[in-house]
Amino acid sequence: MCDHHAAGQGGRGQGHGHGHRHDAVAGPGEELVVCAVRGNMTVRSEAERDGRVRDVDGRRYYFCCAHCVDLFDADPAAYAATV
Known about the structure:
Blueprint: E1 32-34, E2 41-43, H1 44-49, E3 53-56, E4 59-62, H2 66-74, H3 76-80
Antiparallel strand pairs: 1-2, 3-4
């Protein structure tokens, strides 16, 4: 379980196991991007493939996991202002 999903972490996490990586390593030809919620690195092609992107006001935001997408979707302006 990653720390931003652990129960009791600022009231944001729900605590669950999941299979995505938080220590993303780009292979040849891959590009790392920053998760707009958590701030950790994720592989651009994987985020795009899995639908973990949002386009807001002409800017594309990437996310490390579906939970971060849900948090962003709930209040895009709050996260867009910090990126």
